C-alpha cells in the first residue's frame, strides 16, 4: 500500500509544506530562544499539523482501499457476466440441437404416418381392383364356357361334314353350270358317275370357292357326299382320272382344316429348303419317306432306263466371243446353267443368259417340279442385275391359252397361241413367269424374219414345250424370235 504512487506524492507535499511553513522558519531563527523558553505551544501546533497530515494520509489510504475493492468487485461482476454469456451460448446451442432433433423426430413421424397412410390407401385400392379383376375374370370364364358349349355342337357338325367333303381342282364348268352357278352338283355328279364310273354316289352339296386372285383360273369345288364309304370309293377311284384325255389335270383331295393345310405347307417348305422334298413327303401332317425315290443326277439314273436325258449347255458363236467375255455364273444345279456375256467395250450391255431343262413327268429323272421352279426363281432374283436377262430351254410345259401376265396390271401385248393344250408343268411355268415379271417371246415377237411354230414334232403330235423368255422391260427391245424345226436346219 505504501509503495503506491499516490501515497508518495502526498508525503512529498507534506514535507514541502512543513519546510516552507513560517512557523518552521521562525522556529529555526529563534531556536535558541524557544529552546530556552521551552514554549510548548509551537510544539503542539506542529504536532497538530502532523496529526492532520497523518489523518489526511489515512483518508487517502482508505480511498485507495475502496478503489481496489471496486476493481475487484467490477472484475468479479465482469467474470460473472462472461460466465453468464457462456452459459447462455451453451443453452442456445443446446436448444438448437434439441430443436433440430425434435424437428427430425417430428419429420420422421410425419413421413411414417404419410407412408402408412399411402400404403393403406394403395392396399385398399389394390384390393378393390383385385376384386374387380377377379369378378371380370369369372365373368369372362363363364362367357367362354358358354361359348364353348355353344361352339362344340357347331364344330362337331362342321368336322362331321368335313369328313365327308372332297375338294376337286381344275374341273371345267359344264354348260348347265355356266347358265346357273347353283348347278355345281350336276358337274360333280357327272364327273363321279360318267368319268369315274361310280354308281350310287349321292352328292348332297357342292359349290365353287371364290379365290382372291382374279386371273381367270378355274375355282376349286368343295363337294359333300352322303357318307364316309362313298368318299372312300371316290378316293380309291381318283387315279383313273390320269388315264383320261380330258380330265388328267383334275385332282381330288381331302377337305383339310385350315390349320392342317398351313402345317402341311410349312412342312413342305422346310423339306424344300433342306433339299429333302425328293426323298420325303408330307402325309397327314407328318414327314414320311417315299416308298421309291428318284433323283435328278445322271449317276443315279437306273441302268435299265430307256435313254440318257438331261443336262444343259450353251453354244456361243465365235463372233460373239470377239465382242463379249463369257463367264459361268452358276452351274450348281444339274438342269440349270447361267452364263454371263460381258461386253468388252460398251457399258450396260452385258447379257445374262440361262439355259434350263425340266424332265418330263414320265421320265426316270422326273423329280420335284416345284423344287426346280423354286431354285430357278431364287437364281433369277440373284442374277437379274448382272445384265439383260434372257432365258431359254425345254420346260416340257404346255401352257395352252393361259396368259403369262396379269391382265389389267402388266402392260404387254398378248401372244399368238398355236398349242391350246395345257398340262401341270404349264401351270407351274405360268405361275413362275407371273411371279418374277417374265414373259415368253414365242408367239409374241416376230419382226422381219421371226416365226412362230411348234417346238416338238413327233409321231404323237405337235406341241410347244420350249420357250424363249425375257423380262417385261426388255420385250420392246427384242426385234425377232424364230423357231426352227429340224427340217429347216437340214435345208439350210
TrEMBL record:
Coiled-coil residues: 78-105
Stretches for region Disordered: 19-65
Alphabetic keyword roster: Coiled coil
Sequence ranges of Polar residues compositional bias: 19-28
Protein's name according to its UniProt entry: Endonuclease/exonuclease/phosphatase domain-containing protein
Organism expressing this protein natively: Lottia gigantea (Giant owl limpet)
